[in-house]
Amino acid sequence: GYEGDDTYFGGAGNDTFVDIQGTNYFDGGEDTDTVSFYGLNSGIQLNLAQGSGSYLNQEGQQITQTFLSIERVNATIHNDHLTGNQENNTFYGYEGDDTYFGGAGNDTFVDIQGTNYFDGGEDTDTVSFYGLNSGIQLNLAQGSGSYLNQEGQQITQTFLSIERVNATIHDDNLTGNQENNTFYGYEGDDTYFGGAGNDTFVDTQGTNYFDGGEGHDSVSLYGFNSGIQLNLAQESGSYIDGEGQQITQTFLGIERVHATIHDDNLTGNQENNDFYSYDGDDLINSGEGNNFINSGSGLDTIELGTGNNRIFLEIGEGFDTVFNFQLGATRFTGVNANELGFEQSNSSVNILAADGDLLASVDGTQVSTFTDNLSTIFI
């Protein structure tokens, strides 16, 4: 729309309205619609719930805006004040000292600079600092955080009702609150503290420290460029980076692991662990708890511990070799027992899909153990 007093009606579709001046009227209509004020010469104040907003022009006059059915806002490089509505809003604040109020909905706030205030309001809300030029330190329980700008100055942040954080490609230090938090650390040597709640830490690179705290906490290493070796009982792990160097990891209070698409070596602890190992030829030692194992595709080896274990069988590439099967303690899921076949192979039983595909080879048992106990073994 550029200059002038413009009127926009989006109708159906995901529409985008770009304007830099004038008294404007925006009606997004259906779907997810965006207003961009990136070129304004001052910060924008807007409230999507009230459908109104304004900015100051170069003469210092207040220029009003009207918003109907707008879900996303690309604000300015100045100081913005942005309030959402009942929808899932996304706000881009860019530079400047910005203030965000999410209201209802699962909202996302994206910022790359400045002293900012984030209030997510209701539901599950996300702050993204991916474009920052240094690592972020934040504590959601305390509602505070900071980073160093290019001049070495500490720039503070305030957080209320934030549950998810997309951090930076630098060294981050992230602490959660009582909610179920999700932290994305990306590159850098990152430190994670989950606190209360069932928390998830997602990382792709670097020497990292994971402390899940209370609850049932997850680490996802899916984006690593090589397989991970980890031992939750020993609270340690490592992988080989692109230069062939061994990069160490520390795991405290972690119960669930999403491993890589490469060859992983995973060992549990005394807790009830969940292992997802995806592609690759993986070795999984379940540990002492009551565990769930989904080894994905590949030629995988599963060594069961003393607890009650569930193994997810998937028809497709590869099969599992299972050791320490215990009737009444070991169960399989993901398949219909009435469509399976069983054959003896020396001291092992092969579990076959209807088309003859080998799903698993279970060591130290007999075919009759399976055929006589289908409802016990398969759930």
Beta-strand segment tally: 39
- Shape annotation: elongated
Strand content: 35-45%
Task: Give the N-terminus to C-terminus distance in angstroms.
Answer: 60 Å
Could you say which structural class the secondary elements and strand pairing correspond to? mainly beta
Structure characterization notes:
With 379 residues, this protein is an all-beta fold. The chain has one domain (7-377). It is 2% helix and 42% strand. It has a 24-stranded mixed β-sheet. It has a 15-stranded parallel β-sheet with strand order 2-4-8-10-12-14-18-20-22-24-28-30-32-34-36, with no helix packed on it. Strand 15 and strand 16 (144-148) form a beta hairpin. The longest helix has 5 residues, at 367-371. The protein starts with 6 loop residues before the first strand and ends with a helix. The mean pLDDT is 97.
SSE topology:
Blueprint: E1 7-9, E2 16-18, E3 24-27, E4 34-36, E5 44-47, E6 52-56, E7 62-68, E8 72-74, E9 81-83, E10 90-94, E11 99-101, E12 108-111, E13 116-119, E14 126-128, E15 136-139, E16 144-148, E17 154-160, E18 164-166, E19 173-175, E20 182-186, E21 191-193, E22 200-203, E23 208-211, E24 218-220, E25 228-231, E26 236-240, E27 246-252, E28 256-258, E29 265-267, E30 274-276, E31 283-285, E32 291-294, E33 299-303, E34 309-312, E35 319-323, E36 330-333, E37 341-345, E38 348-352, E39 358-363, H1 367-371, H2 374-377
Parallel strand pairs: 1-3, 2-4, 3-7, 4-8, 5-9, 8-10, 9-11, 10-12, 11-13, 12-14, 13-17, 14-18, 15-19, 18-20, 19-21, 20-22, 21-23, 22-24, 23-27, 24-28, 25-29, 28-30, 29-31, 30-32, 31-33, 32-34, 33-35, 34-36, 35-39
Antiparallel strand pairs: 5-6, 6-7, 15-16, 16-17, 25-26, 26-27, 37-38, 38-39
